[in-house]
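Hey team,

Filing this mostly as a record. A colleague (T.K.) asked me to run one chain through the structure pipeline before their review meeting, and I want the input and output archived in the tracker in case anyone asks later how it was produced. No errors, nothing strange. Just documentation.

Input sequence:
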Amino acid sequence: MSQPPFLPRAALRLGFLGLAPLAISALVTLSAHTSTARLGAIAFSLYAAVLLSFLGGVRCGIEIMRDPQNPNAARLLFSALPGLAGWVLAVFVVFVTPALGASAAFAGLFAAQGAWDYRSARDAAAPAWYPVLRQVLTGGAMLVCLLIPLATAMHHL
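Output structure:
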């Protein structure tokens, strides 16, 4: 069994720091005060869209580095899709606030982005530690997404 790659401390710390606003906004949705919980759902959705956009930008950068003279147009397009879907979901939450369904959709988008990053990191010239980092952070983001259904269930008790 091979040793997992060493994760650079800065990448790991910054990755978890990047998850903090997502987790904090999800925790705010647990508030018994309806307006506060709604603001938490909106903040959660907006930040989730920001994270997905950031991850798409990373994928775009990796694709450009893979072949600077001839980047794959389909990969560039696909790198933008999760972020665009995230922004559509965020707008939906701002105007309609179905945070329960949105959190499941965000979890799915994070999972799809993470799976794509993991599977294609080697041929995309990503560092050896990148797929492991993405697994850890994607898992964290998906766990945070589970707080929204918990908040919804608590508000219906």
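Quick notes for T.K.: Helices lie at 9-28, 34-66, 73-96, 99-120, 130-145, 147-155. Residues 64 and 70 are 8 Å apart (CA to CA).
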